[in-house]
Amino acid sequence: MTDKVQLEIKAPVAVVTLNKPDRLNALDFEMWEDIRQAAEALDASADVRVAILTGAGGAFCAGLDLKAGSTLSLPADLSPPQAVAHIREHVAHLQACFSRLEACRVPVIAAIQRCCIGGGLELALCCDIRLAAEGTVFSIPEAQVGIVPDMGGTQRLPRTVGVGKAKELIYSARRIDAAEALRIGLVNAVVPAGDLWATTTELADEIAANAPLAVQAAKRAINGTYWREMGAWLEWEGAEAAPVLLSEDRIAGLQAGAQKKRAEFRGR
Question: For 11-40, what is each residue's pLDDT tens digit?
């Protein structure tokens, strides 16, 4: 792991911290790998009963780090079908990093503040419970930069807030506040920013005090019912997202996003 994601274990509670505060913990390729390794380390720590996912510097995650550039690199000599196949493999690898956190044997609580955007929201959806601070902004704005929410957003979000609301948020790319996130079921609770950490650790301690085998079996039972076909769902999402990543709109969107401008899309 790099220092962009930090893991602190004080059994029975572990804390995973996204640690790129100068960029509001925006994601780059190394962070995806770090998240996977942190999840593996959690599972290897037998004394851990619950984990907290948080962000350094008073923010959760601002999504993809556009200034760091794309996580995707395509060889120049690929044909379009070969390029799509390469993209699907790349997307599947990144999806698996997030899914590894979702598959942790212990419950994971997301402590969310300031921003939970794009890939950050998709990462939060991999957690069992989401607590938010007042003033937090939520958005899944990929369509605004010419791409598809391909880290599980088109699959986990509808199953969390309902199909209609998920379509509204994904198609419009609009932002919502913490109060609306609570109303639609995106988060479990909203608390004053100054109380977020205490509230999160109190819940973690409450979970950790219960029988760990029972809690972990309950998690497997719930996820085994509601997320049983997640692998196939993510594969479908990747298949739809891959061709869009070759579009002119995607290039225009990412360039405009890095400059904090709105792109003019041409539908090609």
Answer: 999 999 999 999 999 999 999 999 999 999
Report CA 186 to chain centroid distance, whole Å. 13
Query: Is 203 among the domain residues?
Result: no
Q: Tell me the pLDDT tens digit for each residue of 63-103.
A: 998 777 666 677 777 887 888 888 899 999 999 999 999 99
- Count Cβ atoms below 10 Å from residue 211 Cβ, excluding itself: 10
Q: Which residue has the tokens 């704005």?
A: 141
Domain count, the chain: 1
C-alpha distances (whole Å) from 181 to each of 8, 109, 139, 164 are: 29, 16, 10, 14
Q: Examine residue 266 and state whether it is found in any structural domain, yes or no.
A: no
Q: What domain range includes position 119?
A: 5-196+210-258
* Residues 244, 237, 67: CA angle, nearest 5 degrees: 55
Contact between 66 and 258 under an 8 Å Cβ cutoff? The reply is yes
Assigned domain for 263 exists: no
* Strand ranges of the sheet holding 50-55, from the earlier edge strand across to the other edge: 5-10, 13-18, 50-55, 108-112, 129-133, 189-191
Cis peptide before 12 (omega within 30 of 0): yes
**Which of 29, 18, 61, 64 lies closest to 257 in space, CA to CA?**
64
Reduced 3-state DSSP string for 171-194: HHCCCEEHHHHHHCCCCCEEECHH
Q: Is the pTM of this model over 0.90?
A: yes
CB atoms within 10 A of CB 248: 12
